Amino acid sequence: MNTITVTDLRATEASQLQGIVHETVRVLERDGVVRLRFAEDPELLLRSVNLRLRNNLSWQVRQELGAGWVAEVHRAEDVPPHDVLDALQRDHKRIDALFSRVIHLTDRNELVAAADYMEQFVVAIRRHLVVEHDMLARAIRTRADATGVDPSAAMIDEHREILAQSAMILAAFEETDASAASVSPLLAILAGYLSKHEVREEMTLFPIWQRALSHAPQPDRSALFERVLTQLEL
User: Fold this and answer.
1) Sorting pLDDT into bands at 50, 70 and 90, what band is 169?
2) Fewer CB within 10 Å of terminal CB in the chain, N or C?
3) CA dihedral 121, 124, 129, 132 (to 10 degrees)
């Protein structure tokens, strides 16, 4: 049974909203719901808070006549993905969890098991890239920014680097003298690169894709969403 916490923030100063929302939702437990009432549309605020909390939240926002805006916030794992970008963010977390397992097993010198998880990680990355490259980047064209960088092209270059580093790690596991000491530095490099890549992607490309999809006909959005869920096996 859901535990519902209700907080009315309509009279709260705008400068204080993000901090209060963050402190309210960060302790949200499984199967719990936080219902927040706002004077203005809270969508951007909730996205910012969710980014700070590593995309662990899911929410629905509705406007109530004469009563402001109401957001019902859940833990992400309590509800199915609600759109393409939500599915991609959840897959980022799943990919990160696989890689964390590789690091943990390597630290324990369980290299056979670590190599197996590394192979699963690469499979998951390649499955993820089908969505980002073939389903989104090809359909939603992006322009170069003020520095001359096209975010889609930058994303693809970074994906190539992630795959190249992954191949080096798999090769390192296969060496006859493989050890935690020889593999761990490679894992550390990829861990840092992967984390920065995901943040850049979610901050730059995801909003572009979200805006483009919001203008697409509903049947097209629904069909794409089903294809993404199938591809990501969510």
Assistant:
1) very high
2) N
3) -120
Instruction: List, in sequence order, every residue forming a beta bridge with 61; answer none if it has no partner.
Output: 71
Q: How far apart are CA 96 and CA 102, in angstroms?
A: 10
Residue 221 pairs in a beta bridge with none
Residue that the structure tokens 């909390």 belong to: 53
Residue that is written with structure tokens 């992630």 in the block: 162
pTM value surpassing 0.90 = no
Retrieve residue 113's tokens. Answer: 């098991």
Domains and CATH numbers, the chain: 3-78 (3.30.110), 84-232 (1.20.120.520)
Order of strands across the sheet that contains 57-63: 3-8, 32-38, 69-75, 57-63
Q: Which residue has the tokens 């894709």?
A: 209
155-164 b/e (C-beta count within 10 Å ≥ 16 → b): beebbeebee
Nearest-Å Rg of the Cα atoms of the chain is 20
Q: Give, for 209, the enclosing helix (H) or strand (E).
A: helix 180-214
* Residue 88 burial (CB count, 10 A): 24
Residue 173's alpha-carbon distances to 45, 104, 214, in angstroms, are 44, 14, 44
Examine the pLDDT at 2 and tell me if it is beyond 90: no
- Do residues 76 and 56 touch, judged by C-beta distance below 8 A? yes
